[in-house]
Amino acid sequence: MIINNFFVFIKIGVLFYTFVNKHKKVITKTMILESKKRCMMYKGSIEVICGSMFSGKTEELLRRLKRSKIAKLKIAAYKPDIDFRYNEKKIVSHNSNYIESIPVKNSADIIDLSVDAQVIGIDEVQFFKNDIVSVCNKLANRGKRVIVSGLDMDFNGEPFGAMPHILSIAEKVTKLHAICNDCGEIANNSFRTYKSNNLIHIGEKDKYKPLCRECFSKNMS
Ligand code: ZN
Question: Cα of 93 to ligand 1 centre, how many Å?
Fold first, then answer.
């Protein structure tokens, strides 16, 4: 009788230990997204941060890259060499937050430059040619966490460059919104405040304003 009770006690102990350990692993996996362990355990992935101008896309990209750096992961940041609004070799947000980056002419250059990186950030991804899609796929297939940010729509409200394709292949998509300059609602569009039909025209608040669907429609007519 005493021996039977002893074995039942041991069995309950083992079950309890197994339960706690199992749940501890699940908590660790979901809570610490930037951990080194995670980077080694999981396959690569593509994350997209998109939205209109002034929606905080670059700020969010910098936040994710900086958290990865704190987790002691090797990070690398790139941007198209046409975007020199703030600083040639930095990715800078509207809040003057920044991280060192390398301007690249062709997206394929990112593959050679980022061999040692575990986490790769690419800003203003809509300015790259369509081969940026296969570049992102290659990097993710090599086990890297690829985080891209950029405009999902151009000044006409049309899908911008390769962005629709990247959105399709991404594991995770975050769409951010600005505040409509005309009515204060959630803004989805980047309205160009001067006349030009060029698809790419780098500018700031002097040339663009974020607008909601209704105000964008009114301003465009
Ligand atoms: Zn509005």
Answer: 24
List the domain range (segments joined by +) for residue 142.
43-175
| Amino acid identity for residue 147 in this structure | I
Q: Which two tokens stand for residue 117?
A: 């990186």
Tokens 């304003």 belong to 209
Contact 133, 186 (CB under 8 A): no
Domain count, the chain: 1
* Annotation says 124 is catalytic: yes
Tell me how far the alpha carbon of residue 198 lies from the centroid of ligand 1, in angstroms.
24
Asked if residue 185 is part of any domain, the answer here is no
Specify if 159 maps to a domain: yes
Q: Which of 100, 124, 185, 204 is catalytic?
A: 124
pLDDT in tens, 37-83: 554 555 799 999 999 999 999 999 999 999 999 999 999 999 998 75
